[in-house]
Write the structure tokens for this entry.
Amino acid sequence: DTGVSQDPRHKITKRGQNVTFRCDPISEHNRLYWYRQTLGQGPEFLTYFQNEAQLEKSRLLSDRFSAERPKGSFSTLEIQRTEQGDSAMYLCASSFWQGWIGETQYFGPGTRLLVL
Amino acid sequence: QKEVEQNSGPLSVPEGAIASLNCTYSDRVSQSFFWYRQYSGKSPELIMSIYSNGDKEDGRFTAQLNKASQYVSLLIRDSQPSDSATYLCAVVNAGNMLTFGGGTRLMVKP
């Protein structure tokens, strides 16, 4: 396994359109995270899954955003009715959580979204 | 107050020098600390994790943790131009979420 993969790597869309991003985690990892990063800032947590269960969702995440991980493997992040403020790098990370402090997240290459 | 604070830089050091990057955090119960490196336009890449007070060394990198002072640092020895990047400090907070600082931009000049 070569790591976390994300598709597409770049997406340009017009305001009001819907977009969907995909993340494939490292195969044995049970946790999958979505982050958003804008220029000059650190990644900002959006949501995460343990297996297929979505356990946490940021209060900053509007209802235009939805994420799924239907079979506990890949995940999708959908943004409906995109706005220019959604332009950012969307990062996916995965980890193997064993219930102790040694969890380490590994990031995919990201999807760069530009909303015109 | 931000949960994880870093000086945005840029921090400029000559090639071969030691680069010292600092990070403070606000959540006293944090137990896990990470340093990621991020090249421009790329995603974060894990450099080191540290969980206990003291120093942890890995090659040219040394992470230092002081929980009493809520302070984490990263030292890069023999800095190379290829080390020029943004360094992100990340802390697992009480809610078990990984929270990132804004990053410090390091420039290593030949």
